Structures are given as structure tokens and as C-alpha cells.
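Entry 14. Structure prediction run on the chain below.
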Amino acid sequence: MSENVVCTGNVNAVKQVWEKRIQILNEDLKREKEFQQKLVRIWEERVSLTKLKEKVTRENGRVILKIEKEEWKTLPSSLLKLNQLQEWQLHRTGLLKIPEFIGRFQNLIVLDLSRNAISEIPRVIGLLTRLQELILSYNKIKTVPKELSNCASLEKLELAVNREICDLPQELSNLFNLTHLDLSMNHFTAIPPAVLNMPALEWLDLGSNRLEQLPDTIERFVNFRDNPLKLEVTLPPSESIEEEEQELFGLQFMHTYIQESRRRADNQVNCLTTSPISINTDG
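Output returned:
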């Protein structure tokens, strides 16, 4: 009986020793695997950084990252080593998102990420207080964060051909330096109040949306063509390809629309004031 107890005890002791050794071995293998993965990430980051450095140029005194028609679905954190960049120009790269570390690029003046696959604008965009131009046309953006209003230096904002943007946060009326706004080919059914309250805005493109009418107080704006406006206002087709003449043509359309809208409103008022008032005395 005692011999069986001793044997069982020895077996359990040996089993515990081997289990401990196996556990230590597995932990060592796990650490080694993690270390190898870390080395791979470091290597990939260095390779990516080298490739990014090759895309950096200087134009008109600005440090610019320029990438065209190369696949960069995500941007590596090693890009932070190039925080002196003043302009990003990334077109047709398949970029899926604006990195969260974008807010650390405090020297950015121009952020041009048009013609990619970006689906949202991160709230940290508001940290770019020196940003003057934000160009995100031809993406898949659906909403605009209110934090964009913190980009106090912003002068130009282009969100054309995102297809599904239908409103802007009221806070964007605090963009006191914004002069150029392109919202064409989206899903607006009315002009956002934020736009009407932008004090410096000179040029607005809301062409090819779903606008049904325009307010009277919008004479400074330009392009509203190709919208289902309720008034039928037509102009001869524009044959010019010059940008300034295209803007003038859009301005002509807008003025014609407003004049027609006012004329019809005046006619309705006149009809109401001249029509006899009938009083129903029955009952």
C-alpha cells in the first residue's frame, strides 16, 4: 500500500516538473515569436519610411509629400518622422482612412487626399490650426465632423463627388477665413445654414445636388446648376472651358434664378392684394 503511494507521488512530481518545463518552453517560444514579429514591423516601417522619403519634394519653399497612383491603403506611423511636411498630395492611392496621428502634423498647410477611398474625416482634424486647404473630393465621406471648425486658418474646402454628404454642422460657420467651398455632386436638398453664415465665403459650388430652391440672400455664390430647382430657369449651353468664364456662367444662372423667384413672389402678392375677398354668409 505504501509503495503505491510513493510511486503515485513520484509520478505526480515528475508530471509537474515536465508541465512546468513545457510552460516555460511555450512562453519562450511566444516571446521569440513576438520578438520576430516586432523585428518584421520595424523592418517594414523602415522600408516604408525610405519609400516615403523618396516621395518628398520641395516646391515654392514648401516641403511636400507627393504620391500618385501607388497603393497606400494605410499610412505607417513612421510617417511621423517627417513631421516637417507642409503639404500632402496623395491621389489614387486607395487610401482608406486619414490616420489618427494627422493631428501631430502641426506644420500642414495643404492636405490634398482627393481620389481615394476615405470614408470619414477624423475629429483630430481640428488640431490642424494652420491648415489652409483641405481637399477630399472623390472619396466616400458621408459626414463632416464639427471639429473641422477648429481649423481657424482654413481658406479652401473641397468635398465634391463624395455622393452622400447631405448636411454640414452649424459650427462650420465659425470658419471665418473660408472663401472657397465645393460641395458639388453630393446629396444636399437645401443649402446648409452654416454655409449662409460663413462671413468670408466668396465661391460656392453646389452643382449636381438635390436642391429644390434657393434663398434670396445668396447673390455672392456661384454654381447651382444641375439641381432639381422648382423654377424652370434655362440658359444657353456654355461652350467655354475657361474656369473664370465657367464661374461667370454659373453666376449668371444663379442671378436669373433669383430674379425669376422674386418676380413670381411679387406676382403672387399682387394677386392677393387685387383679388376680391369673398365672405361666406351661409349658416
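Confidence is low (pLDDT under 50) at residues 243-248, 276-283.
Filed with the rest of this week's runs.
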